[in-house]
UniProtKB/TrEMBL annotation:
It catalyses: a 2,3-saturated acyl-[ACP] + NAD(+) = a (2E)-enoyl-[ACP] + NADH + H(+). GO terms for molecular function: enoyl-[acyl-carrier-protein] reductase (NADH) activity. InterPro entries: Enoyl-ACP_Rdtase_NADH (IPR014358), NAD(P)-bd_dom_sf (IPR036291), SDR_fam (IPR002347). Belongs to the short-chain dehydrogenases/reductases (SDR) family. FabI subfamily. It comes from Gloeocapsopsis crepidinum LEGE 06123. This is Enoyl-[acyl-carrier-protein] reductase [NADH]. Its EC number is 1.3.1.9. The keyword Nucleotidyltransferase does not apply. Gene3D superfamilies: Enoyl acyl carrier protein reductase, NAD(P)-binding Rossmann-like Domain. It holds the Pfam family adh_short_C2. Pathway: Lipid metabolism. The keyword Kinase does not apply. Keywords: Fatty acid biosynthesis, Fatty acid metabolism, Lipid biosynthesis, Lipid metabolism, NAD, Oxidoreductase.
Length: 258
């Protein structure tokens, strides 16, 4: 029943085989979607090579550099989509960053530059990419981003990223309100802690994972594949009536009081 055949999907944020974005890309491909991948370029081209080798089995028809702090690269990415596909059906936003020093210590000591950078990359980029995608979603579409419980509650060593995720979740609601009139749905998945390149910057991530395994109703944490399955569902017609929502894929941890 979950069929994405003929749908064009741009997936951002794949860094390695532990990335949640990689889990999502695999499940979208499995459901029949035509995959496009953007990667964060670097001077030596290491990321391009690494990501290209990883996603080769998905046979992406689009593979483009896109640093969301670079306006020209964003414009180039969506120009390439226009030229190659003419339309976009799915946008997967898996982008987040904060300076490591702003993820620990006293929150009141968050640097001005660190705060601005975290919100630009982790929050504003969803608004920016959604705005660029809007003209290309001529037949409706689905936008899915990733959030975390730290945007709703205090989580040790999450600090400024919690503010970024709170802003991201509110952005989901405003975007859903704006884009709904053209049948574009916008949702977020709040995944449980998973050991990824990004989460490794959060102090005590392994302790967090072990805590979830002990406390969550399912007595485990979740996998990239499970998050990918949820994303594929949100991008499919099975979720045609769902927008502006935060879907918790965390083995039930969010419902627990203690």
């Amino acid at each position: 029943m979950l069929d994405l055949t003929g749908k064009n999907a741009l997936v951002t944020g794949i860094a390695n085989n532990r990335s949640i974005a990689w889990g999502i890309a695999q499940q979208l491909h499995k459901a029949g979607a035509n995959i496009g991948v953007s990667y964060l370029p670097d001077d030596k081209g290491k990321m391009e090579k690494k990501v290209a080798e990883l996603v080769e089995p998905l046979n992406p028809s689009l593979f483009v550099p896109c640093d969301v702090q670079n306006e020209a690269q964003i414009e180039s990415t969506f120009a390439a989509i226009q030229e190659k596909w003419s339309k976009l059906d799915i946008l997967i936003h898996c982008l987040a960053f904060a300076n490591k020093e702003d993820l620990s210590g006293e929150f009141s000591h968050t640097s001005r530059s660190g705060f601005a950078k975290a919100l630009e990359i982790s929050t504003y980029s969803l608004i920016q990419l959604s705005g660029a995608a809007k003209p290309l979603m001529t037949e409706g579409g689905s936008i899915v981003t990733l959030t975390y419980l730290g945007g709703d509650r205090v989580v040790p060593n999450y600090n400024v990223m919690g503010i970024a995720k709170a802003g991201l979740e509110m952005s989901v609601r405003y975007l859903a309100s704006e884009l709904g009139s053209q049948n574009v749905r916008v949702n977020a998945i709040s995944a449980g802690p998973i050991r990824t390149l990004a989460s490794s910057a959060v102090g005590g991530i392994l302790d967090m994972i072990h805590h979830v395994e002990e406390v969550a109703p399912l007595r485990r944490t979740v996998t990239q594949t499970e998050v990918g399955n949820a994303a594929a569902f949100l991008c499919s017609d099975l979720a045609s009536g769902i927008t502006g929502q935060i879907l918790y894929v965390d083995a039930g941890y969010q419902i627990m009081g203690m």
